[in-house]
Amino acid sequence: MTASPGAVDVVVVGSGHNGLVAACYLAREGLSVEVLESDEVLGGAVSTVERWPGVRVDRGSSAHVIVRHSGIVEELALAGHGLRYIDCDPWGFAPAPSPGAPGPDGRPLVLSVDLDATCASIEAACGPEDAAAYRRFVEVWAPRSRAVVASFGRAPTAGGLLRSFWPLGAPADGRPRTPGGELAADFLGSGDALLDKWFTSERLKAALAWFGAQSGPPMSEPGTAAMVGWVALLHDVPPGHPVGGSGGLTEALRRRLEADGGRVVLGDGAARLLVEDGRVTGVETRSGRVVRANSVVAACHIGVTRELAGEAAPPVLADAAPPVGNGFGLVVRALTDAPPSYPGAGPEALQGLQLLCTDRAQLAAAHGDWGAGRVPREPVPLAMSFSASDATLAPPGQHVVTIWGQWYPYALADGADWDALADAEARRLVAAVDRYAPGFAASVRKTYVQTPLALERELSLPRGNVMHVEMGLASMFALRPAPGLSGHRVPGLTGLYLAGASTHPGGGVSGNSGRTAARTLLADRGALPRARAVAGRALRRVRGGAGRA
Question: Cα separation of 70 and 515, whole Å?
Answer without folding.
Answer: 10
